[in-house]
């Protein structure tokens, strides 16, 4: 049994190349589940792009990911989570040398930075500014003084990093930072559109802007990617038959057992944003259906969406196929819609 991420390798790699070439200084983000590919695949692709002189640096999410990245990627590795003296274990993953010359740390305050310097000496750091994202960062008015203090204490200050909310409309916020913080040549920026980056480069031709890109790089050409699950069993059922742990009543048709469950990230949901009236209405309608034990599954059979018999199991799901619909055969593959940031595929097949 398996859930497989199938990748059109030539098309996907062409997209990667176009993305990097269109964004000078691009820093690929390689973190978490590797956007469904797994970290080893993305690290190998980043190393290949480094070998072609297209990528110098990559970014990882946490210190726990840094040792693997440093071993696989020949360039610099930026850690996005801020260094915290008070968060054990510091620095994180076993075997990580905090002072590795290829490692770049994110800092948001002097005390943490001094703790880092005590462990790593002349550590390479970027200062994270507190943007409208309102997550990590030093406030705008604090950053100039912090930069000076870090330089005075002997840390190698490499620039400022800004993590912005999703969507557009960040041009003036970023411009305020870049124009107002003197002496900083290199800026790491996330979630900016191509037009916003182009405008910033025109406004600040003497600055080096390095976009940090994850989703738009690895998942930016959905047509090159497909997640498929194997059909493991097919059984004709009559109305009133029962199935599953919860013994739900079935209608006439077929019961399908397919690969893919919570262990693969199938049907795992983040809270709905519900930003529009339509999205709220959909959320309410889905809640009503769920209360009636009617939950649409992410599996598609013959172009037709299917319903869960019950919540997915750890590694398989039970699906109801109504009478009149031709069932697939055991061993066939069916499409499955899954968020790549939660996907844990059994295999990644790049052809």
**Helicity level:** 25-40%
Specify the number of helices: 9
Rg estimate, integer Å: 24 Å
Overall outline? elongated
Name the CATH superfamily assignment of the largest domain.
Alanine racemase
Count of distinct strands: 18
Tell me the major beta sheet. 8 strands, parallel
Organism: Lapillicoccus jejuensis
Protein name: Alanine racemase
Domain Alanine racemase N-terminal: 15-220
Summed up:
The protein has 351 residues and is of the alpha/beta class. 27% of the residues lie in helices and 28% in strands.
Characterize the structure shown.
By secondary structure, the protein is of the alpha/beta class. The protein has 2 domains: 7-220, TIM Barrel, CATH 3.20.20.10; 225-350, Beta Barrel (Lyase, Ornithine Decarboxylase, Chain A, domain 1). 27% of the residues lie in helices and 28% in strands. The protein has an 8-stranded parallel sheet. The protein has a 6-stranded antiparallel β-barrel with strand order 10-13-16-15-14-17.
Short descriptors:
TIM Barrel, 351 residues, Ala_racemase_N, elongated, single chain, 6-stranded antiparallel barrel, 2 domains, 8-stranded parallel sheet, Lyase, Ornithine Decarboxylase, Chain A, domain 1, alpha/beta, PLP-binding_barrel
């Amino acid at each position: 049994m398996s859930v497989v991420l199938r990748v059109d390798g030539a098309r996907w790699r062409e997209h990667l190349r176009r993305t990097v070439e269109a964004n000078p200084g691009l820093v690929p983000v390689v973190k978490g589940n590797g956007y469904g590919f797994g970290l080893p695949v993305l690290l190998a692709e980043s190393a290949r792009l480094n070998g072609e002189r297209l990528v110098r640096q990559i970014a990882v999410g946490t210190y726990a990911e840094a040792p693997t990245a440093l071993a696989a990627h020949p360039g610099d590795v930026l850690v996005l989570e801020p260094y915290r003296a008070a968060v054990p274990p510091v620095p994180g993953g076993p075997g990580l040398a905090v002072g590795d010359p290829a490692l770049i740390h994110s800092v948001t305050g002097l005390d943490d930075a001094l703790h880092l310097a005590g462990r790593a000496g002349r550590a390479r750091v970027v200062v994270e500014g507190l943007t409208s994202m309102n997550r990590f960062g030093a406030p705008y008015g604090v950053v100039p003084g912090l930069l000076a203090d870090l330089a005075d204490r002997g840390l190698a200050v490499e620039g400022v990093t800004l993590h912005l909310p999703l969507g557009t409309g960040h041009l003036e916020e970023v411009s305020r930072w870049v124009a107002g913080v003197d002496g900083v040549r290199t800026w790491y920026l996330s979630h900016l559109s191509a037009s916003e980056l182009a405008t910033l480069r025109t406004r600040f031709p003497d600055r080096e802007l390095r976009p940090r890109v994850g989703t738009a790089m690895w998942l930016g050409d959905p047509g090159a990617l497909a997640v498929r699950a194997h059909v493991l069993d097919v059984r004709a059922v009559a109305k009133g038959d029962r199935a599953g742990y919860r013994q739900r009543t079935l209608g006439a048709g077929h019961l399908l057992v397919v690969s893919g469950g919570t262990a693969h990230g199938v049907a795992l949901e983040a809270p709905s944003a519900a930003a529009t009236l339509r999205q709220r209405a959909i959320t309410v309608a889905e809640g009503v259906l769920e209360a009636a034990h009617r939950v649409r599954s992410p599996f598609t059979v013959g172009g037709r969406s299917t319903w869960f018999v019950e919540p997915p199991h750890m590694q398989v799901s039970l699906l109801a196929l109504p009478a009149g619909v031709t069932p697939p055969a055991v061993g066939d593959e069916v499409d499955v819609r899954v968020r790549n940031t939660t996907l844990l595929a059994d295999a990644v097949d790049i052809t």
